[in-house]
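Reading is simple: each integer encodes one residue's backbone shape. An example follows:

___
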Amino acid sequence: MRPRGSVASALVGAVVVVVLTGCSGEDSGPDVPTREPATAAVSPAAANPAGQVFAAPATKALLAERATGRLAALDTTGNSLALIDPATPSTPRTVALPAAGASLAQGKPGEVLVAAPDRVLRVDALTGAVVEVPVDGDVRSVQTRTDGTLVVGTAEGTVRELDADGTVTRTITGLVSTDVIALTGDDTTVLDRKQTAVVAVGEEALGLMLRAGDGATNAITDSHGRIIVADTAGGELLVYSTGPLVLRQRFPVISSPYALADDPRSDLVWVSATQSNEVVGYDLSTGIGVETARLATLRQPDAIAVDERTGDLYVASGTGDGLQRIGAEDRKRGQ
């Protein structure tokens, strides 16, 4: 039987830690306090977005595939994936998915991973060819290690690790939902939106759990091995290190922070603010986030990504207002 526990509270100047233990049996989930997952604030009409805007369907997830530079845009239904050549953004290749996707992740070079019910979809970024990897559960998140291992998280709060041929090698339970997976070195950390918590995943059980604001929505890792979390309900950006899991930075971001992207070329983290239709760039090198740029976006900037080859920032609208490209020169004008 799974032990009772609760989310730890991260207070100003102090962080309280809770250790939860996973178990091998599947059940209805731990008996812990939860909340309805936070969502992006509804945007007003947009005016004068920076850079260029191209037609695109309503999008809930955006990825810049590292090897090819192709953009992958998952529509809000999850039923189709647009593969976009940045040189010709107006003519994407549209891939009909065999199951509704929930999120995107970088796969092996040239590949996009799509989390979907009972499977992970491997999509070739150039051809659109799809290979299905069966997984037990409603998969909401996925990441891959350099050795080809897949780490997947389900809506039921289970973390599974699969080797390169799809065989399950490890199963950890105990979360309420496994919405985002962050891999930093050998460490695995999960964002649980219903508990608004970040949780370390050990070899055989869950590890440290820290409160992640009032309603965390998204998380990414950056080029320095940090985990960046958007606390949308609380209006903050949270920065964690791992091994052990520690909250390092916490600072306010106005206008409802939501989508996140790392830009290793300029050493900035970008966050979208959906209440004001903006993207904001932060330098985290000083121990507290320093705003370096604030740029106007199209309406409802629910998904953002950075092309690591060029440094171009892309913003996708969750209401179908298009895809926005903000190049380096555009960013300079917005500083």
Q: What stands out?
A: The chain is about 0% helix and 50% strand. Residues 328-334 form the longest helix (7 residues).
